[in-house]
Amino acid sequence: MKANISRWCRDHGSNFASQIFDRSADAFDDFLQSSLFTEKLRKEGEAIQKLLSRPSTMTMNELLKSFSMQELEKDLHAAAPTLWGILTSVSTREGPGSSRRSKELVFTAICTMLSLVRSQRANNFQTIMGLFLLGSGASKREISVLAAAGLSVSPSTVNDHVKQLSQENLEIVQGVIKRFLCSLAWDNLNFAF
Predict the structure, then answer these.
(1) Cys-Cys link to 54, which of 58, 78, 92, 101 (CB 3.0-4.6 A)?
(2) In angstroms, rounded to a whole number, what is the distance separating the alpha carbons of residues 123 and 1?
(3) By C-alpha distance, which of 47, 178, 51 is closest to 123?
(4) Which burial class, exposed, middle or buried, applies to 119 when counting CB atoms under 10 A from its CB (0-12, 13-18, 19+)?
(5) What residue ranges in 45-127 does DSSP mark as E strands?
(6) What are phi and psi of 56, to 5 degrees?
(7) Domain of life of the organism in this record (predicted)?
(8) What is the pTM of this model?
(9) If we measure between CA atoms, which residue out of 60, 77, 54, 66 comes closest to residue 130?
(10) Per-10-residue mean pLDDT for the chain, 193 residues long?
(11) Helix, strand, or coil (residue 172)
C-alpha cells in the first residue's frame, strides 16, 4: 500500500498539488509557511554557507586558484535547487525581449549575499570580489559601500588578505631560492643624488 502511494505521489503528486493550490490561495500560503518548506530552504541556506566557507587550512593562493564563477554557479544551483527555482520564477519576464545581464550571475551574487547573512565566515565570493576591486583600483570608499551591501569584504579585511598573500608568496620564493641555484640581476638602476 505504501509503495503504491509513494509511486502515485512521485508520478502525480506535483500535478495534484498544483491543482489544489490553483483552487485555494490559502492552501498555497499555508504550504509556504509550513515547516516542511521552511526547513527545506533552511537546509539549502546551510548548504550554501558550507559551500562558501573555506577551511582554516586553505591558503589565499589556493582560494584564488580554485575560484571560478562558472563552477560556483553550478555548485550553488546543485546545493540550493529550490531557492534557485524561486529566483528563476521571480525573474522571468512575460513580455518579449531578454536582458543583457546574465541572470545566473545575479543569482550567484544573491546566494553569496544570503550566505554572508548566515555567517560572516562564509565569504569566499566577497573575499575574491574585494581583492578584485583593490586590484582594479577601486577606492576605499567604494569597497566600503560594496562591503556594506554584502558584495565585498571591508577594506581592512582586503588589506589583511593582501598581507597574507604577500607572506604566502614570500615563503614560496624563499623555498625556491633555498632549493635551486638562483641569481638576481638588476638592470637600469637609478640612484637619486
Answers:
(1) 58
(2) 48
(3) 51
(4) middle
(5) none
(6) -65, -20
(7) Eukaryota
(8) 0.73
(9) 60
(10) 74 70 70 80 91 88 91 93 88 68 86 85 87 94 93 93 94 87 74 66
(11) helix
